[in-house]
Design a protein that fits this description.
single chain, 464 residues, alpha+beta, Neuraminidase, 5-stranded antiparallel β-sheet, 4-stranded antiparallel β-sheet, disordered N terminus, binds calcium ion
Length: 464
């Protein structure tokens, strides 16, 4: 384009010079000729400079350039940051990954935390080693496995949403349930998250989050703990009750943090105005002690509320530095909004924007997610760190998402979809004591197409 303009300018200049030479005479002719030459030289130099340093190309570009992601959304991301995201995601040979994987750069956070290396060579520290794994089916015939935790003795406890807690021992799914809870299996509600006391079995408690129907007909959620008695669970003790429930948005994330506190993810129970209110436990991350009491160092004195402004929190994972990441479902029609599923880095007292915003909003009143799905829908549920990456199970997205972050815990250096459409809807994720990553399908939850042996627990075993 610029070359064509340059040529046109040169031709016009030559024509003008020829006309002047024909019409003028003497010193006047020489002066005008000199003027034409100066103008032509200036224009040519300007065009050349533009070709070398313009935003469409050139070297060392750090221009804020809109980078469209795979969903067609345009996110303002610095070129130097978006490119290593792709490069890092592409260096995972051996993974059973569809060709499109790695082509979904996350909307990077703005400048301060960006790597400044050249695009082709991302810092080795920011990019975990390539992963190789094979997939084996460890259990089948389950019904909507939701929570999955491992005891130090190698047993796995699995919650089935209709209300059963099952046990895998010695690789075998025990036919009789370990416990049955009086849940209301309605819509997205039922028996949801599980957590094991960090000192189990010395402290012999398994924790569960479930939906039930109150005598007045309302749906509510509660957190209970069951004492392990022999090979069965004993009576349930309620630790946290009256968490608003509904047929949708019941949350259900449950996990002990490295601080020994129990974290609880709740949903807005389809009443989004309560999510930012500190006086409601709906639409929150809650934090309680193992006995159900409120920790003295919670951000709101006397309240289990730990962070606010969430829509539907189902998964928690802590990285090696003890940072808490939580998965959250984005809108599916509220106010005409869609998608924008989130992975948030949770800080005490933080407001994560719902219902004012979904996804990255760059509004200083709220905290943005570290990753969002844009106009894709992942419906992210369970989460776990494994071999340096955060793995998030996607229900509607029918994949296992792998995310890796830079040293700041926020800069996304890998973002790819694994197992896409291989096993259907995925929900539970846990790193097992056997070194494998365990993933549960959720194809019998009323929204999937179950295979004859669904639902399954899969083991992702390192190596090819
Ligand atoms: Ca948010």
């Amino acid at each position: 384009m610029r070359i064509a303009v340059l040529a046109l300018g040169a031709a016009a200049g030559a024509l003008l010079a020829w006309l002047l030479l024909r019409t003028a005479s003497g010193r006047r002719r020489v002066a005008m000729l000199a003027l034409v030459l100066v103008v032509a030289l200036g224009a040519g130099l300007g065009a050349l400079l533009s070709l070398t340093f313009g935003p469409e190309g050139g070297s060392g570009s750090t221009f804020a350039t809109p980078v469209p992601d795979a969903g067609g959304r345009v996110a303002a991301a610095r070129v130097a940051a978006a490119t290593p995201t792709r490069a890092a995601a592409a260096t995972t040979p051996g993974l059973p990954t569809p060709p499109a994987a790695g082509a979904t750069p996350a909307p990077a956070k703005p400048p301060a935390a960006q790597p400044t290396g050249t695009p082709a060579t991302p810092s080795p520290a920011a990019s975990p080693a390539p992963l190789r794994f094979t997939v084996a089916v460890a259990a089948s015939g389950l019904e909507v496995p939701w929570g999955l935790v491992f005891a130090p003795d190698g047993r796995a406890f699995v919650s089935e949403r209709p209300g059963r807690i099952r046990v895998l021992a010695g690789g075998q799914l025990q036919p009789a349930p370990w416990a049955v809870l009086p849940v209301a299996h309605v819509g997205e509600g039922g028996l949801l998250g599980l957590a094991l006391h960090p000192q189990f079995p010395a402290e012999p408690y398994l924790y569960a989050y479930y939906t039930y129907r109150a005598p007045d007909g309302r749906l509510l959620n509660r957190v209970v703990r069951l004492r392990a008695e022999g090979s069965r669970g004993g009576a349930a003790q309620t630790l946290l009750d009256d968490i608003p429930g509904a047929a949708i948005h019941d949350g259900g994330g449950l996990a002990f943090g490295p601080d020994g506190k129990l974290y609880v993810g709740t949903g807005d129970a389809a009443q989004r105005s309560v999510a930012p209110r500190p006086d409601s436990v709906a639409g929150k991350v809650l934090r309680i002690n193992a006995d159900g009491s409120v920790p003295a160092d919670n951000p709101f004195v006397g309240s289990p509320v730990y962070s606010l402004g969430h829509r539907n929190v189902q998964g928690f994972a802590w990285d090696a530095q003890g940072r808490l990441y939580a998965t959250e479902h984005g809108p599916s029609g509220e106010d005409g909004r869609c998608c924008r599923d989130e992975v948030n880095l949770i800080v005490p007292g933080g407001n994560y924007g719902w219902p004012t915003h979904a996804g990255i909003a760059r509004d200083p009143r709220f905290r943005d997610p570290v990753v969002e799905s844009g106009m894709d829908t992942w419906a992210p549920s369970g989460a776990a760190f494994w071999r340096g990456s955060l793995f998030v199970a996607a229900l509607r997205g029918v994949h296992l998402r792998r995310l890796a972050f830079g040293p700041d815990g926020q800069t996304v250096v890998a973002n790819e979809a694994l197992l896409l459409d291989r096993y259907g809807r995925l929900r539970a994720v846990a790193a097992g004591p056997d070194g494998a990553l365990w993933v549960g399908t959720s194809n019998r939850d009323g929204r999937g197409r179950p295979a004859p042996d669904d639902d399954r627990l899969l083991r992702l075993v390192p190596g090819s």
